[in-house]
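tool_log.txt
---
The assistant was asked to compare two proteins side by side. It first ran the structure predictor on the initial sequence, then on the second. Raw inputs and outputs are pasted verbatim so the downstream comparison step can read them without reformatting.
(1)
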Amino acid sequence: MKNFDDLYAELKAKAEAADPNSRTVKELESGIHFIGKKIAEEAGEVWIAAEYQSDDELAEEISQLIYHAQVMMIARGLTPDDIYRYL
């Protein structure tokens, strides 16, 4: 099982490897606007899951939101420590 830091390290390594088949690399290459749209989409899906779906489905949607948020962090050069300062 991964935690926030583990996921970030994995995504950062994928970004640095620049594997053209990586979903993370493709999203980063699509740019900030695309990543932002994915975050907005996932946030809406979290809300819908919270209203109408099971806890497992909600947890999955939240994990996808975290994934896209971390891709945005990498795109903008932020680290988990940059986020933790505000928690």
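(2)
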Amino acid sequence: MTDNDSLQSYLRSVAVTAGRGERVPTVRQLMRDFSLSQQNVERVLKSLKEEGLVAAYVGRGTFFTGGEGVQATEINAADDRAQKSVILLRRSANNLRGRVVLEELQHRLSDAGHVTLEVGYSNPEHAREVLQTLPRFDACIVQNSFDTMPIDMIAAIRRKTDTVIVDGAWLVGTDIDAVGFEWGQSVEAAVERLVASGHDRIHYVTTASFFLANEMGQHRWRILRSRPELSSVLQPEIRVGRLPPKDYEEMAVSAFRAALKDAPAARKPALLIWGIDDGVKLRRLLANVGLTVPSDLSVVLLGRTDLDPEAGGFFHVFGYSAADQINGVYERLIERWRKPEDPFGLRLLPMTERPGPSLDEQGPPQ
């Protein structure tokens, strides 16, 4: 399918459900979103005008006709009703995990006959501006990484669609669905493994930025620290101010090194760290400050077990898989379409583990 065909298919799908008088996105926006020239966008719009699906008014813009022209086209009405339009709303600066999930979701939705449009935004205000230019669509998958979605941003999305799926753990009690992962179970599993392997001082590095999944991980860490047998082993969490991916590894290693200066001596120290995108880089940064893994320090990551760059072919990882995330979001979307009256809620993914030589599982030195 060419880019022209993708644009035409998307606008035709939206035209079937759009209300009469809803504005068609501007030529400039369609050029940007579909990577098309002005001439190609105008050619597609001309075709839709001839079919009666849109109408242009000088000085006002182009608007959907409310489906009045559908009967005059060669489009099969039943097929159009089956075809859905899905907006993939993402932060402009997304990470590897985000790109993998969105790309695979696009493939699955396209293979199922649905039309997708990926829309990037830089902040909530920009998201609201972008949404105002779009017609109604059948669903929105939101991938906002770790940032807060203000109430007015959620309201702007809900004005455009009845089906909203958040890619990531999200607060319950809203009329949206979410599929994600909480880090508490992985924190506890990693601590149990490290303690059983004889580690007598364990540090935990994560982000200071608030989001639900990470807060649950920190909450579990603090509960574990309150146990008498672990109070001297588990150190206060080290919180890095900046989220991945920019400079996060450097900041995490720097913060960890600073914490080591005040930490009690240990025969067998370990580091549990969240948010690493580049395992090879992390290993190099630790070596640069004189820490060889695992002879000087065992390291366990909290991350995605099926994204090779995170583990870097070396690190032991507790977390979840991107494949499970993709399946979870896609299946929840299809279920929501089939059963629109089902209760909304958060679905958590199962924990997985990826072994790696960064974890020294021998007992403490004698």
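---
observation on (2): The chain has a mean pLDDT of 86. The longest helix spans residues 322-338.
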